[in-house]
Amino acid sequence: MISPEEESVEVESIISVTIGATVPTGFEYTAAEEVHEKIGVEARISKDRGRIYFTITTDKLFQVHLLRSVDNLFVVVEDYDQYEFKESKEETLAELQQLASKLPWTNALEVWKLNRTFKKRKVQRKGANGANGKPSNEVGDATVACAESQGQAEEAPLADGLNKTEEATDTETTNTQDSEEAAPGAKIMKFRVTCNRAGDKHSFSSNEAARDFGGAVQEFFQWKADMTKFDIEVLLNIHNSEVVIGIALTEESLHKRNISHFGPTTLRSTLCYGMLRLSKPQPSDIVLDPMCGTGAIPLEGALEFPASFYLSGDNNDMAVNRTVNNVCHLQKRKADKGSAPGLPIDTVRWDLCSLPMRSSSVDIIITDMPFGKRMGSRKKNWDLYPSCLREMARVCRPASGKAVLLTQDKKCFSKALSRMGGLWRKQHTVWVNVGGLHAGVFLLRRTSTLFGQTPEDIYESQDSTRPQGDQDDSQRC
Fold this sequence. Notes:
By secondary structure, the chain is α/β, with parallel strands linked by helices. The protein is 28% helix and 22% strand. The longest helix is centred in the last third of the chain and has 20 residues, at 317-336.
């Protein structure tokens, strides 16, 4: 947690700056709501999906690092809503070179310096990024000065695969540099420029833009380029005609802050937070994740909505062990900080289609349904999904119960939901991008019909007669 000394860092003058944040695609409005709720300012949704912008004064900078819905943070140097690119590539790149010396860098650099005082000492990166880690566009965590932010370094550019849409998108990284205060005897700052470009009407590539713009930044500040061991990261975000230049405030993404033991399909903590906010947990609610994987959803819930109680389980022993280890890791971390180590979570190994729970005993169900990609198969989903929805309907409270379900197998889910029409009603859908896959987060409301009174209740899926070994690998995507 940020100490009182850090919170009271004095600056010569409090200035107003614009902060940009990357967020899970599809949950931009959720992130904007959190900003308004916790910082008290309005956020603007970017045209480029997966980004929001909001203006703060520097005395509130530490609060920005406590947001749960943002992946990365940066301070905006300048933004252009309708940037007019030249027709030829040479003219455009020459203009970008000239732009570097015309930008108002002063306030952004002051914020960057102030931001360094909020950072924790880096946690030694653990070896879990190998066998247990996700692909590079899913790897990352933050080491900024907030209570629950620590984990593994993100190696992808600030706007990763989650920000790519159907447009032609290319994201490359070159020319990196950073700087320190130009005090006598101070070492030369090292920097890099990361360009994230989306759109199909540009005459240049991200690599070319970062190279030429970075060269001009280097010449202007006399910084030293370093692609890996940089002090400062300059961001050049281009989305069609929108151009935003910024300076990164997070060295590592915030989205795996709670996880120490990773699985093949570990959800981002920021995506988990968006799903939890969609369900609106209330004090004393029982929240169930029947396919918990590594426990990302219940862990995020226990930290952000601790007045509810979280039940998590999986049919896979390794998944249950990962969840237990992650819970123990967070409990130890809380104890090391002097907080009460307990968390309102319990973890069980079970069969999803036959949960060891009483009927109508759960208020909210939140889970990541199997995609049929990295685990299981779409063929098995046709049997599994109806059985899942039926058993979820049995344990969920009629009329008041809710379910927030994430899946990329939309066709199979829609078919299963239509078969369970007497038990569930779809209220809302949030379309998200999960590792480059177009998925949906579906908010369902449990109907008032008591379980056992509709034809769907007595339907016996073929999945229920299939050997247990065939079921084990079909319940995780």
